Amino acid sequence: MAKKTVTDYPKLWELNEVWQMLSDDEKVYINDNCTIVNFRKNEIIHKEGDVPTHMMMLAKGKVRVYKEGIGKKPQIIRMLKPCDFFAYRAMIANESSNTSVSAFEASVVYMVKKDAFMHVIETNSRFCYQFMVMMARDLGQSDRRTVNLTQKHVRGRLAEALLSLKQNYGLDDDGATISMYMSREDMANLSNMTTANAIRTLSNFVEEEIIALDGRKIKILDEDKLIRISRLG
Amino acid sequence: MAKKTVTDYPKLWELNEVWQMLSDDEKVYINDNCTIVNFRKNEIIHKEGDVPTHMMMLAKGKVRVYKEGIGKKPQIIRMLKPCDFFAYRAMIANESSNTSVSAFEASVVYMVKKDAFMHVIETNSRFCYQFMVMMARDLGQSDRRTVNLTQKHVRGRLAEALLSLKQNYGLDDDGATISMYMSREDMANLSNMTTANAIRTLSNFVEEEIIALDGRKIKILDEDKLIRISRLG
DNA sequence: AAAAAAATATGCTCTTTAGCATATTTTGTA
DNA sequence: TACAAAATATGCTAAAGAGCATATTTTTTT
Q1: Cβ contact (<8 Å) for B129 and A138?
Q2: What is the model's pLDDT at position A5?
Q3: Range B12-140 has CATH code 3.40.50.1000
Q4: Matching CATH number, A152-232, of 3.30.710.10, 2.40.10.120, 1.10.10.10, 1.25.40.10
């Protein structure tokens, strides 16, 4: 955990509007209890089972939230992008952490001390409500994901993953390349399949002219087809 | 939707302590906006895609929360027991309903009008916080379930389902029979497998003297073994 | 009580996908 | 630049589990 507390980082509330629910005093209080930490690629930010000490906001970079299942096989639960919050669920549920989080690429994380965050969320009802809405959305997403991952076949799951990456991270300037370059192994762990199957299925999509590959860059050529494959399973 | 508004039902707040977060005035307000509805076995309470109009509390009976996946195949997301809340997630996320709910057996549901519930949750921060805690727990459960269902094999998934039914509904007076008699088809939809496989695997468990079957009654003979099977996948 | 419908039980086949091996390419590092 | 390590690609085999058929039992309806 390579600490580096520099001054030229934006303030919390410049990154996510949820902080606007706080009064000026509360903002200062949270800011005083916030540390900024840099993580290198693949560095672990926190582990499943850890007792949460900070609520976190990703300021820069990309991170994966994952669980280790049977035989340590990792399942990526969700991928985060800048301004997303994490590590607060366990805190609120008063549980130890359910998931691990690691940096997909070099990332900057704002860490707010548990006590400070909990104090504000318990006393500021508008702020509390915003977090509830976030969790309600995440819960819906998680239930949808359960069905997608359990019922769809390899092709459907991978198509789904590509679409959700596009949705989450957007496209490069060419308007077709997904702005997220992940390894085949991560693709597999995201879509619940073996690495070999992720590789094979991506190759098939290339043959069928649904996507084009250039190393880890994935260009979507036929989004409609991808949507159809994802729908049919 | 067989309505039957009788007077001898307990008040909301006698069923779930969360209502104790409300002031007397708020309690009356919620009570005035609450209808009690009876559902027959297998009757649908609400459907995926419905726009939520009421937050609901199960007062009596058992209900299944499920999603229809590929080819209408239902996946049971969770089973509820009396005093559990449901149908509030979509409301809070401002989405249409993500899941369907149907009565597993004859059930009594308290339905609180959306506006009344939303008004209270937006203004009473202690009440809001309680719901946030509930959702945080559900979200953790949902993520765990995703990994269980995707990574474990049939035996592990079924063992897991039996243990969670025991956990949720408890045991009969004999201290071994799960107090929940579900069809093999429901068992299959809960554990993400075909009905034939649920039947087959239950039979195997009987042969191995892990459980005993008497129609739909399931008696757990060797819980340790069940736990081991569930752990190993 | 009889008939019909639904649920349970079991066997067989075939598809999907995991597991493994191996070759090749790319990336990171000395 | 060269070497080692990691990632990608692809083929073969085996296992898990779905799909289907059919028989039997249980439940519901007439």
Answers
A1: no
A2: 47
A3: no
A4: 1.10.10.10
